[in-house]
């Protein structure tokens, strides 16, 4: 049975590319806008296996994205992947500081260094070239103990990835679906294989 993926669309112009990556990996994908009245009912292991908090132009600040309502409803039951806006919203929800970046990165690439775990597991190199579109970042200070920094940009030392230490939640600031991001499909595949614990009949902690 294919994994059932809910992609939450924050009115992003390229969400269909992210969707196509999951479909290439054999997933059954449902795309719902972040304000769809039927969305919260599907945030349930009975109906879904993975939640993707997608990118988007944003309301101006991730606190206004509505993603906190989704994370609250989920309560760690389903694996969550956050991309760009989703990354920022996850960081904010779990106690990180959000701030405006000094370097605006709209359509620019950077090399990142990662920890080789989670969505980065099994990659051949600890560095990747990724595409960035953002002006807001998760600040690299006062990171809560339950959150781990998984990657950072080499050129400006901004956080490019987070992982919850106890829940199946991971996020990336960059765009894995961009053609300019190296190993983008592998990143998605690694997330799926790392966090789809509910199909294996065991808790997330038992996989690590």
From TrEMBL:
<protein>
    <submittedName>
        <fullName>Anthranilate synthase component II</fullName>
    </submittedName>
</protein>
<dbReference type="InterPro" id="IPR017926">
    <property type="entry name" value="GATASE"/>
</dbReference>
<dbReference type="GO" id="GO:0004049">
    <property type="term" value="F:anthranilate synthase activity"/>
</dbReference>
<dbReference type="GO" id="GO:0000162">
    <property type="term" value="P:L-tryptophan biosynthetic process"/>
</dbReference>
<keyword id="KW-0315">Glutamine amidotransferase</keyword>
<feature type="domain" description="Glutamine amidotransferase">
    <location>
        <begin position="7"/>
        <end position="192"/>
    </location>
</feature>
<dbReference type="InterPro" id="IPR006221">
    <property type="entry name" value="TrpG/PapA_dom"/>
</dbReference>
<dbReference type="InterPro" id="IPR050472">
    <property type="entry name" value="Anth_synth/Amidotransfase"/>
</dbReference>
<dbReference type="InterPro" id="IPR029062">
    <property type="entry name" value="Class_I_gatase-like"/>
</dbReference>
<dbReference type="GO" id="GO:0005829">
    <property type="term" value="C:cytosol"/>
</dbReference>
<dbReference type="Pfam" id="PF00117">
    <property type="entry name" value="GATase"/>
</dbReference>
């Amino acid at each position: 049975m294919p994994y059932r993926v809910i992609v939450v669309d924050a009115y992003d112009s390229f969400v269909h590319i992210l969707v196509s990556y999951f479909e290439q990996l054999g997933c059954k994908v449902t795309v719902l806008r972040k304000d769809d009245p039927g969305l919260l009912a599907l945030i349930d292991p009975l109906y879904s296996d993975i939640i993707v908090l997608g990118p988007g132009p944003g309301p101006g600040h991730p606190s206004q994205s509505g993603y906190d309502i989704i994370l609250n409803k989920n309560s760690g039951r389903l694996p969550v992947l956050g991309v760009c806006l989703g990354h920022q919203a996850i960081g904010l929800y779990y106690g990180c500081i959000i701030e405006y970046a000094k370097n605006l990165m709209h359509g620019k690439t950077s090399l990142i260094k990662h920890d080789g775990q989670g969505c980065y597991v099994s990659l051949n190199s600890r560095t990747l070239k990724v595409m960035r579109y953002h002006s807001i970042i998760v600040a690299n200070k006062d990171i809560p103990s339950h959150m781990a920094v998984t990657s950072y940009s080499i050129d400006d030392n901004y956080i490019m990835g987070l992982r919850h230490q106890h829940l199946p939640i991971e996020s990336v600031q960059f765009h894995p679906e961009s053609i300019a991001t190296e190993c983008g499909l592998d990143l998605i595949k690694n997330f799926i294989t790392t966090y789809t614990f509910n199909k294996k009949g065991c808790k997330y902690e038992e996989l690590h």
